Records
---
Amino acid sequence: MNVYRVLIVEDHPFQHQYLTTVFQAAGGFEVELVWDGATALQRLSRSHYDLLLSDLMMPQMDGVQLIQQLAQLHRPPALALMTAASRRMLLGSGQVAKNLGLKVAGLISKPVREAEIISLRERLDDLTEQARTFSRRPRGCRARSTLIKALENGEIQAWYQPKKSLRDGRIVGAEALARWVHPAEGLLMPGAFLDEIENAELEIELLTSILGQTLGAQAQWARMGHSLPVSINLPTHLLDQPDLVDQLLAQVRVNQADPRQITFELTESSTTQLSSNYYAGACRLRLMGFGLAQDDFGKGYSSYFNLVSTPFTELKIDRSLVLGCGENDGLASALLSITELGRKLGLTTVAEGAETQAELAVLRRVQCDQVQGFIISPAVPRNDLAALLREDGPRPALL
C-alpha cells in the first residue's frame, strides 16, 4: 500500500482529533494538521505533500482564497475540500480548483467518514499511476512528420462508443472517438496526442480520417442489417475554413453514403474568429443534410441563445451534470430542465458519462432520449461494435 503525506487545514480543535482518528483508521496516510491557510502555504513551500485537505469555512484566508494561492505553487499537491456548507458551495469551489489546473481528489460534505478517506486514497493511487505513465512517455512535442505517419498508417483510429435508447434499451447510434494504437507506447487516449495534433495544424486531417473510417464502419454495419448514425467531434474553430463543409460533403458522396447518418458535435474547446463563420458553417452543415449537436451542454460557455440560434438536431448533456445525479437532487432538477428544453426545441437529448444504475434511473425519469457511458460500453473498435450490434439483436433489449 502506498503511504501518502497529507496536510489538513482545519480551525476547529475537535475536528483535528476526529480527522486524525479517521485517517488512522483508513490507513495509508501520514497526517499533519494546521489551523489556517497561511500556515499551510508555509508548510507547502518547505515540504512536499501528496494531498491538501482543507475546510472551506476558515477565518482570515477562506478555502477559496487558499485554492487560488495553491494554484500559484510550482508543484501543488492534489486537493480535497470539505465543508458543512451546501453541496453547491462545495461543487463551485471544486470548479475553481479545476479551472486553475489543480487535481481535485475529492469533495466531501461534513462529517467526514472513513469510506470517503478510503476513496481519497484510491484517487491518489490513480493519480500516482497516471504520473508514472506520463513519465514513461517521450518528452516534448512529437514531430509533425510522426503525427502524419501515424495518420497515414492507420495508427490513429476511430473507436466507437455506443448510444442506447432510454425508451427500449437498443443501440441507436455511436460516437466516434480517436484512439492512437501506438506501436511502442500502446493504446493512447486523446489527451495524450490531441494537443499535438492541434499544434501541428493537423486537425482537418484527423477529422477527415475519422470521417473516412466511420463511413467504412457504417458500410460494414449496414451489410449486417444495421443502419447506425455516428457523431464525430468537430473543433468549432475549423468552421473558419470556408471550404470545410464542401470538403466533408464531397468525402461522404465519394463513399456513396448519406450525410444524414453523420452528426458533427461542435466542441466548446475553441471558437471561430468571426461569429459569422460559426453560424455560416453550422447552417451549411445542416443544409447539406448533416446532423449537428451542441456538445457538452451545461459546461463552460454554452448558452441558451447559442442553443436556440443554431440549427442543432442534438443536445449532448455534459457528464458533469450526470455524475452523481442519482444522489444529488440539484443535478436531477437541472437534467429535468435541460431535457424539457430539448423536447420543446425538437432536439434529441443525449446524456454523456453515465456510470451507475442510479444515474440511468434519473435519466429515464427525466425522459432523456439516449445515453452513453461506461455502464453501457467504453469506446471500442468497429468490429467490437459490430459484435455488440449482433448481441443487440432484432428485438429491444432493456438495459
---
Amino acid sequence: MGCSLNKKLIGDKTTNVNFVLAFGSCNRVDLPNLLWDDVLNAKPDVWVWGGDNIYADTDDMVALRSMYNVQKEQPEYKKLTATTDILGTWDDHDYGLNDGGVEFEAKDASQQEFLNFMNVPDESPLRKQQGVYNSRKYDVDGHSINIIILDTRYFRTKLTPDTETKKRLKPNEYGEGTMLGEVQWNWLKKELNSSKSDFNIIVSSVQYLSHEHGFEAWGNFPHEVDKLASVISDSKAAGVIVLSGDRHISEFSKTKIDGMGYPVIDFTSSGLTHAYKGFAGEPNKYRVGEVVFTESFGILEFNFEAKKVDFKIVGGNGIVLGKLEQVYE
C-alpha cells in the first residue's frame, strides 16, 4: 500500500523538512488527553499509534468497542484524524490481556475491533489476516518512506515470569519462543528485502534494544533480537529505524549492527496520558541522552537531501524534552 504526497515544508522553510512522522503510546480515555493539540501543532504527515492506545484489558468486545469509540470522539484527536493519516499497532492493554500474547483467546475478535478503531475498510485484506501487521509507503518528490507496522502480540510466545529476582520477567533460553511467528517473519523479510525507500520505519509496540529492566521487551527472546538484527543487515535496506512504546518513559537507544553503515536507533515514546513519574533509573547500555518520565510523544523530521532525521521527544506546550540527530549515509 502506498500514497504520494506533495512536498510540505513544516514551520520555518529553511529547515528543509520533507516529511514529519509523529507517534506515541500508552493513552487512557479516563485521563485527560492533553497532548493532541501539540500533536496537531506539529503538523505531521502521519500519526502512528505505538500500542496501548486505550486501556481495556478485557475479552468483552462491547466494552472494548465502547472505549475505542470514546477515544475516537475525543475532540482534538478527532481533529487529527480529519487531517492526518493514522497508522498503528496494538500492545497488551488494547489487545486485551496484560502482557498477553498468543495465548489470548479473544484475539481474533479484538483484532476486528482494533481495525474498526483504525477505520480499516471492511473489504481490506487486513480483515482476513491473522495479526495486525501491515505497511504503507509514502512517496515524496522522488523519495519515499516505508512504515512497517509489526504485531508483537498475536503470535508471541507466552512470557516467562522471573521467580528468582525482583524483576517481573526473565529471558527465555536462547532459541525458545517467538516474537513474530513464522508468517510475520517471512513477511518482514520480504518488506525489507524489496524496499527501495530512503527510510524504513519499523514500529514495535515493545522496546527492541533496552531489555535489562525485566519488563516486556524483545530481549525476553534473545535469539529474536539477533534475528531481527540479521534480517535488517542482510536486507541492505536504507535508513532502518525502530519506534517503540509500552514503558511509560521516553528515551533513545542506539547500537551498531555488523554489516550496516549506520546505527539502528530505537526511539521509545510513552506515554501520552500518564508516565512513570516515580522513575528512579534503570540500566540500558544502549541509551543515548536522558530518560524522559513525563507525558510526551515523539516526532521524526526527515530531510531527504541531507539524509538526516531529527528525533524529538515533545511534551506539553510543544516543549522539546529530548532530541537526537542522525545522518544516514
---
Amino acid sequence: MSREKEQTIALSAVFQAAELVSILAKTGKVDNESLKPLLDSILMLNAASTEDIYGGQWDCRSNLALGRRIAQQALGKERSSVNPDTLRYALSLIHLENKLSKTPEMLSQIGQSIINIEQKKAHYESVLHDNMLASISGMYQDTLSKLPFRIQVHGDSRFLQQPQISNQVRAILMAGIRAAMLWRQLGGKRWHLIFKRKALLSALEARH
C-alpha cells in the first residue's frame, strides 16, 4: 500500500470524526455504523496495518466511507459542498494533535488511560456502551481539554447540554485526534492538504 493511500485512510477518519461531531451537535443523533470504527480505533494499540486500525478494507460501507467521501469533496472541486463546521473541526483536530505531540506527559497519560479503558471493555458488549463513551470522554476532558487550544463545537444547546451527547462529542473528538496522530505519523502535514491535493485525491479515488 502506498504512503499516500495510508495517509488518506487516516485523513478519511479525521473527516469522518469531524462530520459526525457536526451532525451530532446539530441533530443529537449519529450513525453507529460510522461511529463504531472510529471509537474502536482509539483502543487499537497494536494493529498489523493502517487498514486494520479501522477494521480492514477501509472503503467498505461500514467503516470509513463517510469520511472518504467528505475528504474527496474537501480536496476536490466540491469543497463548497462540505459543511464549514466539518472543515473547521477537521483542521482543528490536526492542529490540536500537533500541540499534543509536543506534550509527552499528556501523551503518556492518554496511553495509560487507553489501557485502563481497554480493560473495561471486557465488561461491556460494545465500545458504544454509555459507560465506555463516558470513559473516553473523561480521558479527553482530563487531557486535551486542558491544552490552551480548544475545539469549539457549535450546535443546538438542547443536545449539547445532555451529558450522554456531550460524552459522545468528546469521544468522537478523541477518535479524531487518534486519526490526526496517525496522519502525522504517516508523514502527513497540514500543507499537504493544499500542495499534495492531487496525489491524495488519486489515492482516495483508487478502489484498491
